[in-house]
Amino acid sequence: MRIKNKIKKRIIELIELAYITARKGDLELAREYIKLAEMYSRKGRIKIPLKYKRMFCRKCYTPLITGVTERRRIRSKILIRTCLICNWQRRYVLSRNKGSNKEN
């Protein structure tokens, strides 16, 4: 169990490091960090947390930085994220929280 926690921490560190590296302009090194994190995830059979999974393109492993490597569009309550490197698109349905309108 302790090993899985260490692997998960390392995966998160690598993805965050990739994001920082991409902001500085070195996309190739950032891709390598993400590929390494993916490999750790597969070998250790550990899921990458959703927050971090959405930080990179699943096709070319480029960190998605809005305005630099990613374009975001909203069309009829659907968020469309497009990687500007490989044109990969991912769509997310935008919905209101159902619990926010409840009365006490």
Strand and helix map with partners:
Elements: H1 2-24, H2 27-44, H3 50-53, E1 70-75, E2 78-83, E3 89-93
Antiparallel strand pairs: 1-2, 2-3
Describe the 3D structure.
This protein has one domain (2-101). It is 43% helix and 16% strand. The protein has helices at residues 2-24, 27-44, 50-53; strands at residues 70-75, 78-83, 89-93. Strands 1-2-3 form a three-stranded antiparallel sheet, with no helix packed on it. It is globular and about 45 Å long.
Please give a handful of descriptors for the protein shown:
alpha+beta, globular, 3 strands, Ribonuclease P protein component 4, 43% helix, 104 residues, 3 helices
Mean pLDDT score, rounded? 91
Tell me about the largest β-sheet. 3 strands, antiparallel
Number of domains: 1
Poorly predicted spans: none
What distance lies between the first and last C-alpha atoms, to the nearest angstrom? 42 Å
Spatial strand sequence of the major β-sheet: 1-2-3
Helical run tally? 3
- Rounded to an integer, what's the Rg over CA atoms? 16 Å
Range of strand content: 15-25%
**Helical/strand content category:** alpha+beta
Give the CA-based shape: globular
Family: Belongs to the eukaryotic/archaeal RNase P protein component 4 family.
Subcellular location: Cytoplasm
InterPro entries: RNP4 (IPR016432), Rpr2/Snm1/Rpp21 (IPR007175)
Protein name: Ribonuclease P protein component 4
